[in-house]
Every structure is written in structure tokens, then in C-alpha cells.
């Protein structure tokens, strides 16, 4: 694929997705309303934690079957709960915490090879736990985040799923023939001996080790953002130069520029709410059309949520921009190396 066609894919808009106003207003409201209530009650940190849970759970899949929607709520709740527990435990501890995060994400990637349900839960867990670990590091009482984050997540998953009952159903994957537990365990064991089957845990483990080593060596440089980039972009199917890596690198760069317009100073309550409301609405629209645009508006939104609403200085913005670009570059490099190893072996 040439550079021109690659960039065309990076910038391409999905014009076929139909957006309804409730599909935008409901997730945005679930993010902004807790922050408004937190400001009014003088508990902004709690409001931001609830909003973070709502943001993470707002990507619930819209299926037509009530049973499938209930299963989806259960899976996203399990992923979020496990990430809350692990993220809270890893909030302190310096290098040991980074080692624990590496172990948790690597173990999750290996467990995800067990079956489709395990892949869904662990895939979300990997992204959630990096975000919540960063948020817990900024909090005075990391373990107190579990209840508000879970409250926001469960509320968002349930309400968006109920909304899905009246929306056009997303196509369901074809049913798979039933496989017994013993057969799954044998297949899982065999997958650990094949490079093609275990390439995802291998790539994720190496990438998390590299990015978390940056966090250990330069703890003041906010390098955990590189690990978040890896968690978001590393997918089970191996693609040497993922379109999403370019989209996130470019989108995050534009997101930092967007953040510069607002986050260098302490905004008033009204301006803060308007800014977050605009980002919430824009992120819900962009998510359906182009990942680069979504990264652009989600970058300042996530920085506000995990940072506890504190003003974000120039140094932090630059660090997170550099970390995003480094994370995306490492992803491409590791993907290329593993792809060549698979051809040789």
C-alpha cells in the first residue's frame, strides 16, 4: 500500500453510518451530567470518575436480541470491574506497579486466546486498566474510584442497551458450533505452542514492556500514555502498518492542539461544562465516522477525566503527544518484525 492510498484510508469518512440524535445525546449526557452534578456538589473528582465509567462503557454493541444485550452488559461490567480493581491496586509502587501492569495485560492477552468471550472481556480490560491506572495515580484515594466508575459504567451500559431495543440491530455474527470445555482447554494449550496463534500476546507483551520501561526510566514524563496508545491500537489480527496507528498519531497531535486552546488555564465552571459537552457530543459523532477525528476530540476529553479536572500544562501536553507518537511507532516496528518472523517460521 502506497503512502497516498494509506493517507486516503486514514482520512476516509464512513458516510453509511446513520446517526440518530439519541445515539449522540444519551452517551454525551451520561458523561457530562455527572460532572455538572459533581461541580454543584463540590465533588468534582467523583463526578469525573462516574463520567469516566460512562465513557468506557458507552461503546456497548447494539444488538437486537434482549438476551444478547444482557450478555453484552455483563461482559462490559466484568471488564470494567476487573480493571477498576487492578488499576486501584497499581496506583502506587513505582516500577513494581508498572511491572504489575505489564503482567496483568500480558496475562489478559494470553487468556483471551481461550475463546470468543474471553477475547472480548480481556480486550476491553487491557484498554480499561491502563486508563484507570493513570486515573488512580492522579487520585488521592485510588480505591475509592471503584464505586463511582462502576456506577457510571453500569448506568451507561444499561441505558444505551435499552436505547438499542428501539434502534436498528447490528448484524449478529453467525452462531458457532458448541465446543466443550475440555476441547477449548486443549485448543488453548496448542495455541501457546504456535507463533501464529500466540502472536497477539507476544506483540502486546513486548510493546507493554517497552512502553512501561519508559514510564520507569522517566516517571515524570507521563509515559503511561504510550502504553495507552499500544493498548488501544494493538489488535489480535496482525497488520504490519495499521491504519488506526496513523489515525491515532495524527488525531492525538490535533487533539493536543485543541487542548492548547483551553486547558492551559483554570476555566470557570460554565466554560468547563461547555467544553466537555462539546467534546462529548463531538466524540460520539466522530466515533461513527472516522477514528482520527475521534482521537482528536477524545484526547483532551480523556486528559480532563483522568487528570481530575486540573489544568493541564504545556509540558504534560507535549509529553503525551510524544508518548502517543512513540507508542504508534513501536507498534508498527514490532508488527513488522513479528510478521517477518511468521514468514520465516
Automatic annotation (TrEMBL):
Ranges of residues in domain Integral membrane bound transporter: 217-333
Chief place of localization: membrane
Parts of the chain that traverse the membrane: 21-40, 46-66, 73-97, 117-133, 145-166, 256-279, 291-309, 321-339
Compartment annotation: Membrane
InterPro entries noted in UniProt: Memb_transporter_dom (IPR049453)
GO cellular component: membrane
Entries under Pfam families matching the protein: FUSC_2
UniProt entry tagged with the keyword Zinc: no
Keywords, ordered alphabetically: Membrane, Transmembrane, Transmembrane helix
Keyword Nucleus: no
Membrane topology: Multi-pass membrane protein
Domain of life: Bacteria
The protein, known as: FUSC family protein
UniProt organism field: Gluconacetobacter dulcium
Lineage: Bacteria, Pseudomonadati, Pseudomonadota, Alphaproteobacteria, Acetobacterales
